[in-house]
Amino acid sequence: MTSDAPWLSDAQQRAWRGWLALGSRLPAALHRQLQAESGLSLQDFEVLVHLSEAAGSRARVLDLARALEWERSRLSHHVTRMERRGLVAREECSEDGRGAFVVLVDAGRAALEAAAPTHAHWVKEVVFGGLSAEDVAALERITGTILSRI
Q1: Contact call for residues 56 and 105 (beta carbons, < 8 A)
Q2: Distance CA 137, CA 34 (A)
Q3: Which residues contact 103 (CB under 8 A, 6 or more apart)?
């Protein structure tokens, strides 16, 4: 589907513009849904999900930043805000004394468990509700192919 022409074809242009619109509108809608239903931001939810899936519900700051594909300073500022709200805590790393862990605390786990069912229902309805099983398989294949090229 590639050519030597520098410009996108009409079909590629439509697909690309749709992708860009989806890339900005879907996260904004997810954020609004989470905020309205649970008081969590989409970024809070992402951090809480990663911590809930990590061994011991904790992750080193650098590892968490890499997993989220955030700059370390962005994560540090966000974790500070989440700490103030009692969702996570920081613990010093006893192995080397330089790093720190971000730890999911009980209130953060409770917030995640309260938000997750409604969030999953919303994603299922909005993202997958109009797609056939073949569409979902194609979406998975397409996103996997693109992500593997980045």
Answers
A1: no
A2: 26
A3: 51, 57, 58, 88, 89, 90, 91
83: which residues sit within 8 A by CB, 6+ positions away? 89, 90
Give the pLDDT of residue 97.
64
With 0-12 / 13-18 / 19 or more C-beta atoms within 10 angstroms meaning exposed / middle / buried, residue 101 is buried
Q: Give all domains of the chain, ordered by start, each with its CATH number.
A: 10-117 (1.10.10.10)
Contacts of 26 (CB under 8 A, 6+ apart): 127
Q: In which residue are the tokens 């809480």 written?
A: 48
Give the tens place of pLDDT for each residue, 48-83: 999 999 999 999 999 999 999 999 999 999 999 999
Q: How many residues does the chain have?
A: 150
Helical ranges in 39-132 per DSSP H: 42-53, 61-68, 72-84, 106-123
Query: Does the structure show a pLDDT above 70 at 2?
Result: no
